[in-house]
Design the sequence.
C-alpha cells in the first residue's frame, strides 16, 4: 500500500467516523468500473499513451513506468511529431515501441487502456479510435472543445462496449474530498447558492497564451480548457447538472491589446520591455521537447502573447442555474498576482467556505469554515498530501492504474457524462457571452440535465 493510498483511506475512515460513518458504505461501482472488468489481458494491465507533450511524458509516461511497473506494462507511445516522440522515448524510459499513427499503435499493441494526452481539439478522434479498437480510454480534461465533438463522443460511447474515464484530478485532493463528504452528509442541508471565484496568476496565464490555449478553435477558450475543472467540481459537489448559463467575458490584456508583438520570445526585439518574456532555452526539458522539434510541425511553445489570433479571454463571469435549483456565481480572472480561489456554499442548514491561496497552501493544510445555521463558525483542517495538484494526482493514478476496483464512496471517478457536462457548462458560457443571451444545456447535445446526476448517458 502506498503512502498516499494509506493517507486517503485513513482520512476517509477518520472523517467518516466524525460524521457518524454515514459515507462508509460499500464500494460504489460506476458503469465504467463494471465494464473495465472486461480487460483483454490477464495479469498486468497493458497501457498505451497518445500525445507525448509535457503531460504525456510526465504525469503518465515516466510516472507509470517508475511508480506503477508492478501493475502495468507501457506497451506503446505515440506522437505525430517524430522529434518529440524520440525525446519522449528516452525520457519515459519504457523501452516500448513508438508510433506516429494511433491506429497502428492500437492494432499492433492491443492495449487494455489508452491514455489520451493530445491537443484538446484532437481528443475526440483519439477517444473514438480507442473505443473502435475495443480499448478503455483515459482522457485528459477537457473531454473536448465543442458541442458537436461532445455528441460524437456520446454516440461512440453508446455504440461501443468500452469505457471512457476523464481525469478530473481536482476531485481527488483530500481537502476537496472532505468538502464532498460534508455536503453528501447533509452538513449544510440543501445547497441554495455557491460563490466560486478563481484567479490565475500572471505566470500561469502567460503559459496558456503562449500556446494553442489562446486560440478558441484549439482550446475552446479557457471557458472550456480551464473551467472544465471548475464546473466539474461544482457539478460533482452539487451532484446535479447545469441547466442554463448566462455569462460575460472579455479579452483585455493579451492578443491585439498588447503594445507590440513579434514572432516568439526567443527572437523578440521587445524582450527587455515585455512583462511576458520567457526563455524556453533556459529549461532543458522544454527546449528538447518543443523548441528542438518545432521544424517538424510548426508547434511553437513560446509564441508571442500579443499575437493577433489570440481570441481566448482573460476575464470571465457566469451565473449558472442547476437542475436542483442551486445557483452558481462564478468568475475566472486571469493574469493577477494571486493564484487560487475562494468558494462558499450556502445551504438550508448552514454555510461552508474556504480559500486556497496557491498550489501548496498555508502551512501544508487547508482550512474550511463550517457554520451550522444559528451556531458559531468552526474550523475544519485537512492536511495536504504529497503529489501534484494538491496531492490529488497520485490518488487518481492509483485508482486508474493500480486498483481500478478501489471503493469510490465519494464518486470521484469520472466518465463520459461528467466530462461532457463540465464542458457543456463552458461551451454554454462562451455562447452566452458571444450572443448576450442565456444558453440552455439541453439545447447543445442529446444529454438532458437531471436534478440528481445519473450514471447513464441520458
Ligand atoms: N488535468 C490537468 O491538470 C492537466 C494539466 C496539464 C495538461 N492537461 C491536458 O493534457 C493534454 C496535453 O497537454 P500538454 O500540455 O502536454 O500539451 P502539448 O501541446 O504540450 O502536447 C500535446 C502532444 O500531443 C501530440 N498530438 C496532438 N495530436 C495528436 C494526435 N492526433 N496523435 C498523436 N499525437 C498528437 C502533439 O504533437 C504534442 O506532442 C491537454 O489536453 C491538456 O488539457 C491536463
Sequence:
Amino acid at each position: 500500500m502506498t503512502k498516499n493510498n494509506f493517507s486517503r483511506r485513513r482520512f476517509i475512515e477518520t472523517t467518516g467516523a466524525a460524521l457518524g460513518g454515514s459515507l462508509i458504505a460499500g464500494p460504489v461501482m460506476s458503469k465504467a468500473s463494471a465494464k473495465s472488468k472486461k480487460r483483454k489481458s490477464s495479469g498486468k494491465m497493458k497501457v498505451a499513451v497518445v500525445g507525448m507533450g509535457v503531460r504525456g511524458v510526465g504525469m503518465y509516461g515516466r510516472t507509470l513506468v517508475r511508480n506503477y511497473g508492478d501493475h502495468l506494462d507501457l506497451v506503446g507511445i505515440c506522437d505525430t511529431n517524430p522529434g518529440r516522440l524520440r525525446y519522449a522515448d528516452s525520457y519515459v524510459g519504457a523501452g516500448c515501441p513508438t508510433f506516429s499513427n494511433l491506429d497502428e499503435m492500437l492494432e499492433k499493441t492491443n492495449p487494455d487502456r489508452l491514455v489520451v494526452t493530445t491537443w484538446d481539439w484532437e481528443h475526440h478522434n483519439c477517444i473514438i479510435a480507442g473505443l473502435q479498437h475495443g480499448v478503455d480510454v483515459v482522457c485528459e480534461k477537457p473531454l473536448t472543445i465543442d458541442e458537436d465533438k461532445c455528441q460524437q463522443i456520446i454516440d461512440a460511447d453508446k455504440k461501443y462496449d468500452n469505457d471512457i474515464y476523464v481525469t478530473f484530478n481536482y476531485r481527488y485532493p483530500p481537502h476537496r474530498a472532505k468538502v464532498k463528504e460534508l455536503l453528501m452528509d447533509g452538513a449544510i442541508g440543501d445547497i441554495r447558492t455557491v460563490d466560486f471565484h478563481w484567479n490565475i496568476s500572471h505566470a500561469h496565464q502567460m503559459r496558456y497564451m503562449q500556446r494553442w490555449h489562446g486560440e478558441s478553435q484549439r482550446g475552446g477558450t479557457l471557458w472550456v480548457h480551464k473551467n472544465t475543472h471548475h464546473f466539474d467540481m461544482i457539478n460533482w459537489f452539487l451532484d446535479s447538472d447545469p441547466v442554463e448559463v448566462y455569462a460575460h467575458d472579455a479579452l483585455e490584456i493579451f492578443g491585439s491589446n498588447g503594445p507590440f508583438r513579434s514572432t516568439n520570445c526567443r527572437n523578440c526585439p521587445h524582450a527587455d520591455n515585455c512583462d511576458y518574456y520567457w526563455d524556453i532555452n533556459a529549461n532543458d526539458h522544454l527546449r528538447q521537447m518543443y523548441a528542438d522539434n518545432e521544424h517538424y510541425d510548426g508547434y511553437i511553445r513560446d509564441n508571442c502573447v500579443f499575437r493577433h489570433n489570440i481570441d481566448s479571454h482573460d476575464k470571465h463571469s457566469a451565473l449558472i442555474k442547476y437542475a436542483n435549483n442551486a445557483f452558481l456565481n462564478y468568475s475566472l480572472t486571469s493574469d493577477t498576482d494571486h493564484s487560487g480561489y475562494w468558494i462558499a456554499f450556502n445551504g438550508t442548514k448552514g454555510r461552508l467556505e474556504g480559500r486556497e491561496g496557491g498550489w501548496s497552501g498555508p502551512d501544508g493544510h487547508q482550512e474550511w469554515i463550517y457554520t451550522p445555521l444559528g451556531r458559531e463558525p468552526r474550523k475544519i483542517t485537512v492536511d495536504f498530501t504529497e503529489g501534484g495538484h494538491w496531492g490529488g494526482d497520485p490518488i487518481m493514478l492509483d485508482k486508474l492504474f493500480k486498483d481500478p476496483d478501489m471503493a469510490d464512496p465519494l464518486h470521484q471517478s469520472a466518465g463520459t457524462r461528467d466530462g461532457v457536462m463540465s464542458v457543456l457548462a463552458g461551451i454554454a458560457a462562451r455562447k452566452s457571452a458571444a450572443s448576450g443571451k442565456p444558453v440552455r444545456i439541453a439545447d447543445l447535445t442529446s444529454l438532458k440535465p437531471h436534478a440528481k446526476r445519473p450514471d447513464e448517458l441520458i
Notes: Residues 416-435 form the longest helix (20 residues).
